[in-house]
Amino acid sequence: MFDRLTGTQQAPPWWLVALAALVALAAVAHGPTWRLARNVVTIAHEGGHALVALVTGRKLDGIKLHSDTSGVTVSRGKPHGPGMVFTAMAGYITPPLLGLLFAALLAGGRITLMLWFSLLLLAGTLVMIRNAYGALSVILTGAVVFGVSWFAGETVQAVFGYLAAWFLLLAGTRPVVELQRMRTRRMAPSSDADQLAHLTGVPGMFWVTVFGLVALLSLVAGGALLIPDGASTPHL
User: Fold this and answer.
1) In this structure, are residues 64 and 71 in contact, taking their beta carbons and an 8 Å threshold?
2) C-alpha torsion angle, residues 181, 187, 191, 195 (rounded to 10)
3) Tell me, what DSSP letter sits at residue 188?
4) Which residues sit opposite 72 in a β-bridge?
5) Does 232 score more than 50 pLDDT?
6) Where are the transmembrane segments (predicted)?
7) Is 72 helix (H, G, I), strand (E, B) or coil?
8) What pLDDT does residue 209 have?
9) β-pairing, 59-65 with 71-76?
10) For 125-173, what is each residue's pLDDT tens digit?
11) Is the pTM of this model over 0.85?
12) Could you tell me if 87 and 75 are in contact, meaning their C-beta atoms sit under 8 angstroms apart?
């Protein structure tokens, strides 16, 4: 296992990479599938809040995940200042940035490392979960990742890793669109963007734009890393 974690694995054929991208796109675009898959995005979103809260010296009280795919991370500390700003900003940008990190690991052939790093992040999140649905959601997600990383063959692991990376990259934009739609309808008065507007005096629309740009740039950069080069796809 140590050799696999520190070594490299073979990337799947280009057509499997393309298939993983199409499946991930379908999961984001198809409403019923998205409502289920969005739980993964919520885990990453709230985990981003929690991680930055700890890094900036705030005291983390816990995370709650809900069946409507919403979530909340509660931390204590000064109600203003850089720590609070970075904590509020982290949620929407964490899923696409995590997808970009996964893409970089996969581009380097670190498929097993990417899967076990995912498990480490899920374990850290589980420790801070404070409700039953949230615990169940994280445990089931971790069980799937563990099952693939421990029992599946190398090709299945590679395809699963690429699918996870594509999903996080493609899923980064939809929550931002949903956020702005809810803000337009005045249904999210305490959203991350509006909290940042209150903390900084900069309009909430600016922060929505920042979230969207991070998601789009991560998708472009991550896609460039995940798409096989021309030398490996002579018949494409």
Assistant:
1) yes
2) 110
3) -
4) 64
5) no
6) 12-29, 85-107, 113-129, 159-177, 205-227
7) strand
8) 97
9) antiparallel
10) 999 999 999 999 999 999 999 999 999 999 999 999 999 999 999 999 9
11) yes
12) yes
